[in-house]
Write a structure and sequence with these properties.
The chain has 76 residues and is mainly alpha-helical. Helix content is 72%, strand content 0%. It contains three helices and no strands. The site of protoporphyrin IX containing FE has 13 residues, from helix 1 and helix 3.
Amino acid sequence: MNWSAFIRQFHRWTSIVFFITVVANVVAISTGGGAQPPAWITYSPLLPLFALMLTGLYLFVLPYLSKGRGSVRSIK
Ligand code: HEM
């Protein structure tokens, strides 16, 4: 697996981790009886979201980076 394929897979699976942390927040807030959920649940989406932002920005510039280097494959 080349580097950009690895980054794409990482972005793909990190999005599932992010989704789980968001669901955990919804569950914690809706079952908490009005009490604030623990801070680690509240802030747990931030780490995967940050990883998604970095890898997503990389995926965004990828087609522009490959232009002029004779690589058409990395656009798909
Ligand atoms: C936070 C900033 C984010 C940026 C800048 C970003 C950017 C991108 C880019 C540029 C692509 C590639 C599109 C393409 O050319 O095919 C992509 C794919 C994708 N993004 Fe994001 N994204 C972000 C966050 C997220 C989030 C929050 C989720 C879902 C929870 C997500 C899920 C995905 C998935 C599933 C793909 C397809 C991956 C694949 O091709 O297998 N991204 N994203």
